[in-house]
Each structure stands twice: as C-alpha cells, then as structure tokens.
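In line with agreed milestones, the collection of sequences with tokenised folds has grown. A representative record is reproduced below.
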Amino acid sequence: MFLLNILVFILVLGVIILIHELGHFYFAKKAKILCHEFSIGMGPVIYQKRKGETVYSIRGIPIGGYVSMAGESVSDALIKKDMVIGVKLNSQGLVTHINMVEAQENDYVGMIKAYDLYGKDFNPLFIDLEVNGEVKHLSVARDAIYVLGQKKQMWITPSEKSFESKTLWQRFLVIFAGPLMNFILALVLYLIVGLFVLKPNLDSSELSYVAPESPAFALGLEVGDVITSINGQSVTSWDDLSVIMASLESPIVTVAYQRGNQNFEQTTVAAVIVQSAGISNVSEDGTRYSDDPIIGRIFGRADTDSSLEVGDEITHIIYNGISYTINTWDDIVNFFIANNAGSVTIRYQRDTETIETTYKLISASALDRLGYSNLIFQLGISPTSSRDLGYSLMYPLRSFSSDVMQVVNTIGLLADPNEDLGLGDLSGPIGIFSLVSQTTSQGLLSILSFTAFLSINIGLLNLLPIPALDGGRLVFLGIEAVTRKPLNRKVENTINNVMFFLLIGLFIFVAYNDIMRLILGS
C-alpha cells in the first residue's frame, strides 16, 4: 500500500506540474520564444532528451518544474570578454558553433575582445576574436550553438527569440497560461467525476443507504425506510432533515420512521464531528462509532499537534484552568458549544494509562469563514438519487467555485491577525503525501477530486502577487503597462532571486513541520 501511495503521489503531482508547465511552454512556443529546457521536477536529472532547441528533462524531486526561456535572466550570453573559446564556421563564414570546452574541432581558437549575441532590432551578431595577436571580426549565425560538453548544447539567444522582446499581451499569456491550465485540468477532472455523481432526491426523506455500524444501523433503519420526524420535528424532505440535523445541540436524537404501513420511533447517539477540535466518535470510513467518549477519528490539529489516537477515551477537558468531567459525547458537545477557540488540554485513557495533551483549537469563526460548521451530526444515511445530465454537467462549476472560495478564504485567514492560523498550519509535499495516502484508499473518483482540488490550489497560489511566482511576474507586467517602460531587468531579477530563496526557506520550514507531525503522529 505504501508503494501504491508513493506512485499515486508522484502521478498526482506530476500531472499537475506537467499541465502547468505545458501552459507556459505552449504559449512561449506560439510567441516564438526560445525555450532552453522543459523540466518536470527539480534537482538532479533522471532522464533528459533534446528535441530541436529544447531539452526535455525529468528531475529527481517532484515538487515543481520549470520552462527555461530565453530572456528571463539579466544576460543570456554564456561568453564574456577575455574568455578563450573556439569557434566553428559554416561555408558562408558564419560562426555556427561556439565551443566552451577543449578537445573540440575548431576553425579558430582565441580570446574574446568584443561581442554581441543579442542583436537588438535585428542588428548583426558578431564576435571579435583575438587569434595569434590578430583580431578577427566574425559574424555569428542567429541559430548558432554553444557547445558545453560532449552531449550538451544550448542555442544562443538573439533578441527576436527572447521573452523580453515580445509584446505585453504575448508575455501575459505565457505567464498566465500555467495557472490557467491548472484551472482547466480541475474542470476536466471534475467533469469526469460529475459523470458518476447522482443527483440526490431532496424532495423525499426515503433512504437509499444505511452505513454499517452507524447510528442509523443501531436504530434498525433499512434501505427504503422513510424518516418522518427527528426529535419531534416533522420531516417531509431531505432538506428538512438536513436543517434539523444542522441545528442539533446534542448528539442524542429520536428518529421516527415509516416502513411500509408500520411506524417506528427509536433514540440513539448520532455520529459527532467536532471540527474545531479535530475529533469524532465515528471512524473515517463511517463503519465504526461509539456512544462512549471514545475517539473514532482524529484530524486537523488533533492529528498534527496532539498525542491523541483513535480508540482513546476522553475523561476530562481542561480549559482556562477549569476541568470539565466527560462521561458521554453529549458532554463533549456541550463543552464545544460553549468553548470553540483557544487552547484545550484533553485528559484521556489509553489502556490503563492516563495521559494529557494540549493543543490549539481552530476557532468557530475561522471554520465559518471556510464554510464549515463547528459541530456536525450524522446518522450514516443517504437519500435516494438518480442520474441527471444537467446536474452532472453543472458539477464541475459548483466544485470549482467552492474550491476557489475555500482557497481564497484560507489565504484570508492566514493573513488575518485576529485568527490563530499561520505558517505552521501549512502543508508541503510531505503533508500532501499524507493526504494522498488517505485519498487513495477511497477509490479513483476521490483521487480525481483531490487532484482537481490540489490543481486549483497550485493555480491560485501561483497567482499570488509575490515575486518569483507567476502572480509577481504579472505585477511587473502591470507596472510596465502603466509606465510604458519595462522594469530594469537587473532589479527584477534581484527581487525574484531574493524572494525565491525566501520561498525555499518557507518550503524547508513547512517540510520540517510536516516531518514533525509524522513523528508525533507515529
């Protein structure tokens, strides 16, 4: 299973990165920009193949990728004055190969005295080469090649093939195409998922599914039963049922239902998910739950910042110096209705050992901004449903807009000083691997949905107005559009390089947190 998780992780990230970089690459090629390298992954090369002007690479660390375009650096020339090089000429006397290494076949070897390999406004390219005390003025072909090794070559960058020489619109498309392709990928994946999603019949309260070992199963509910009331409140549709369940303040529920001509009424403890604390009395697959205050599932900060494990029995919750005795899940619910922010200490029993753990809650206000309720009550039932083409076709748009709002709200919460969320709550590739591992066990549709969600995340994060990201480069283009004058390349590259190293530092910090969470979790 571990090997399968690694394979899915590489595949998910690889597809997202490939699509993103293909967006940049396609529009760069359309604009006739010279692309030196198209790489999936970072770090050491695993596989590399040259086709035409571009080297296609797969690198060892699957955390990103890049398209190396001519004109992105301060100077694309690999030669400089007083450097000794060799050159090879064609039959017209034009330099076609600039040899940077020894043991190459050359027509001339000498020291560079002057050169222009950019040729702005189509000015001729040249190299003035001192050979045996004589300076030779050599014209250079606009498709000349640097020879960097036995099998390593790179084309020179004349101005017409440079990124900076293209129009604002062309450069905008090249930069924006990466995130755009991420959004298109997400929509396509959600469309595939949507074709398998049935439209729920919200006008009926008839059951089409009862989860094994769920509260509904304990009640004796069966497929085909019709729920008529919950806690004495009339239910005539699934919307009624949802509204009532969302307004509960206790997990103890009395359900009345009809089976054929018979009416039944039973009381049970509903499955409870406490979002702020990251605990639940129901397992992740919904097949196990407990009436007693035993943890069936942990997630969020309970998973990353506490020592809690599935099966622990909560005995006390200590908050602001006051200890609350816990006997039932009703006690837990009452506590978190009254207290849903700050830090809590949970005392729990594991086998014969009594243990305490302290961690911070995610505030109810933060959850509300993300579109979540602090407390969720479930019975483990599903409504009847049917295929509906219109519903399936609208599924991608609904999912896409929901994901975008969630990412935007999350970024807003991270930037909000009034909310207790920060960089420590971010996850990197290691955290993503953990999520992929959970998703893989839920089947192909869950993997596709997660890939779509992650693709939207990467697309939006790349559009943040931060130098070194696509959004930062778009900001520079915006400045150029307003001032009618491009930003100094040296200044822009310095800003991008500084921010790149800061982002690498952030990546290391997030990776360290992910590793510590895994260690604590184990």
Remarks:
- The radius of gyration is 31 Å.
